[in-house]
Every structure is written in C-alpha cells, then in structure tokens.
Amino acid sequence: MTAAAGVILLLIALTAFFVAAEYGAVGVRRSRLRRMCEDGHVTAARLLPVVENPQRLNRYIASSQVGITLSGMVLGAYAEAMITPRVAPLLQRWMEADTAESIAATSILLALTMLSVAFGEIVPKMFALRYPTETALATTRLMLWSGRVFSWFIVIVDGSAALLRSLAGLPTATHRHIHSPDEIALLIAESRDGGLLEPQEQVRLHRALRLGLRNARQLMVPRARLAAIEISTPQADVFRVAATSPYSRLPVYRQTMDDIVGILHTKDVVMHFVQRGRTGTLAALVRPILRVPDVMAADRLLEFLRERRSHQALVVDNAGSVVGLITLEDVLGELLGSVPDEFKAPRLLPLRLNDGRVRLPADLPLERARVWVEGAWPVDNLSVGDFVIREVGRVPEPGERFDVWELPVEVESVEERKLASIIVAPPRFDEDEEGRQE
After folding, report:
1. Is 196 a residue whose pLDDT tops 70?
2. Closest by alpha carbon to 390, among 419, 349, 433?
C-alpha cells in the first residue's frame, strides 16, 4: 500500500510539473529573459527562442498538455488496478461484491480527482502565475526533453487539429503574449492586490494604458487662460516682462489671440539685451510654434513633440482657429498626475498701457512689481494686492483712485472680494514718455 501511495503522489507531482511549466512559459516576460541572456544565463538562452517563436511555443505548450493528459490517465488506470481490488473486499462485509467494487472505484476516483485538482493543478498554477520567470526556467530542461519524446504524438495531434480547423473555417491560433488593454488592466490590479505593485505604480500604469483615449483638446490650456504678450509691445516693456514674469516661454499674438504668431523664450530676451541692448523689436525674437489638431491622441501627440524637439504646440480646430495650447507637461501630467505648468496660470502679465501707466496683476510679487514702478515701492514679501490693501486698510472698490507711496493707483478689477488688478502711474512718467517718442 505504501508503494502504491508513492506512485500516486509521483503521478500527481508529474501533473503539477506540467501545469506549472505551461503557465510559466505563457507568463514569463521575454524582456526579462533577454536581460538574463545578456548576463550569460544558460537556461534563459535555451528558453528565449521558444517563447519568441509562436510555433515553437505552441509545441512547447502542447508537450505540457500531453504530459498532463498522460499523467492523469496513468493515475486513473493505476488506481483502478492497484487500489480498488484492495478496498472492495473491505466493503463486501456490508454489501454485494459488484456493488462494493463499484462504490470503491467511484470513491477512489473522486478522492484522486480532488487531490489532483488541488495539488496537481491549482497550487502549481498559482505558483507559476506568481513566479513565472523562476517557474519557466526551472522546468525548461525537462520540458525540452519531453518535447522531443512527445514530438511524434504532437505532430499527429496538431495535424488532426489543423484539419478540423480548416474544415470548420477557423483561424490558426497561437500561444502569443498578447493581451487587450482591459486584460492588462486586470493583470495590473491583480499585481497590486498581490503586493507586487505599489498603489501609485498601479495608477501610473492605468494612466499609460488610457493615454491614447485622451486628445489634445481635453489636455490643452484653453486660449482664454493663456498668459501671452502682444507683438507690438515696446522693447523696453519686453525686457520688463522677461525680468518680472515667472514664465520662461510666452505665446506672442498680433492684435488678438486669434492670431498667435509664435513663442517668446525669455532667455532669448536676456541674450538680446546682453548683446545688443534695448535695440530691435519683439518680432525678431519670436520663434515659430507648431500646430496640432484638437483631435490628436495624447500618445501620438507625445511622439509628435518628441520627434520635433518641441515643448509646446498650438491646438487648432477643424476651421484652423486656435483653441488652446498644449505642452509636454500637460501630457506628462496625464501620466504622472498634476505637473506645474507655466501656461496654466490664470493671472495677467504686467503691461504698459498706451497712456504710459502700467497694469499690474494683484498676485504679482511686490519684488517683481518694483521693476515696473522704478523701485518706488518697498522691498517686502507681499503680493501687489496685499501691499495695496495694507496701505489702504481695506479692499478697495473697482474704479477707486488713491495714492500708494506717492504713486497714483487706480483699481481696475476686484473678483470675489479680492483685488485682481490695478493700474499704476510710475514715477518719471514724462521722461519715459519722451524716451519712447525719441
């Protein structure tokens, strides 16, 4: 009886081996096998050609399926021949011989089926799915040998299957490592539940899978929220904008935002000032900017910007009208979460008006505002709006006028009980006007 139990356990172990080999070969990553081959791993070098070739992988899987079938058949036949004759006489004390033999055979078959399913299929399958590379490498040598042993049988079975497929008009199926996005998402979720992925990694992978479902219009900065500069802005004010703006790149438009002519890099303004001083015009510093359709998929857009070595592009609709601006940060933000983007700031830029006064956004740091008021205001860690409210002692009303440190100030707009923008007459107003006229 002990010998029979040993044979049964051996046959169950053989079934478990073939099941693990099958799931290991299907689940192993080819990229990891390539790295192991580069590191000189001998077994990986033998397995890699198998998983990279669909036909060879088919035969490899067929070998494991033949092994599973044969070990199961031998297990059933062995139990029928060796165990049933020993158990049936024990039952004959309470029933007839034929009935006892039938009950004994059925009971042994059920018991062996449960053992085979639990320890010969479920356990090795779970192990192989959890450790596919290790399992595939551990079973490679014996599986290659089994493939040679079963080759004649596999040829007959494959030939019969091919004949049936052709008669039924079915396409040829191969064991390739191909999964739909939904299946990959399920695998990612299972990997996270199994502790192989951190929650943040799972989120990033899901975003990468869905990147192609988002387009430029969904990710762009709308035109109404762009911080831009008009192309006819005097050169002196261009230098002021470059010195005080928190942005490194600014769209440049002609008269209205419907006509964006290019992009201004503030570093170009600095280099121009160092080399040529205040001469020239803004148009000479403007760089061309790409245009993309608003329906372009985000993954294609990422490749488009990379190929052209650009960080941003205008988004246009079917009529060719500019509807927004898209940057690399917008696309990367879809993958990595919120990424600070200088084009997304809703605030205004400092701007010199036609009458010589200066419009200052309320959230502009006071240190940067001092450039526009010729240093007349103090150095303080405040915004323009907070500084004005502190000096006035309250939130002023739109259109209200008063002096702040001897400079005339007009409140241009107030939003939600907060100062939004003011207009200031800087000192040496007449001298600036005369200089511009000259």
Report:
1. no
2. 419
- Looking at 3.40.640.10, 3.10.580.10, 3.30.70.2570, 3.60.20.20, the CATH number of the domain 215-346 comes to 3.10.580.10
* Element of type H or E holding 146: helix 132-149
Neighbours of 383 (CB within 10 A): 20
Beta bridge partners of 251: 263
What are 376's two structure tokens? 């007349």
In whole angstroms, give the CA distance from residue 331 to residue 215.
10
Query: Per mean pLDDT, which of 181-195, 200-214, 393-407 is the most reliable?
Result: 393-407
How would you class 336 by CB atoms within 10 Å of its CB: exposed for 0-12, middle for 13-18, buried for 19 or more? middle
- Give yes or no for residue 281 having a pLDDT over 80: no
Model pLDDT for residues 41-57, shown as the tens digit of each residue: 888 888 888 888 877 88
Residue written as token pair 């192990």: 127
Give backbone dihedrals phi and psi of 164, rounded to 5 degrees, phi first: -65, -40
Cβ atoms of residues 305 and 195 within 8 Å: no
Helix (H) or strand (E) holding 424: strand 418-424
Cα separation, 362 vs 383, in Å, equals: 7
Task: Count other Cβ atoms within 10 Å, centred on residue 77.
Answer: 10
Give the start-to-end residue ranges of the domains of the chain.
2-168, 181-209, 215-346, 347-438
What Å distances lie between residue 229 and 94, 348, 384, CA to CA?
Answer: 101, 10, 20
Least confident of 21-30, 94-103, 182-191, 271-280: 182-191
Query: Order of strands across the sheet with 229-230?
Result: 229-230, 249-254, 256-265
* 347 closest CA partner among 394, 385, 393: 385
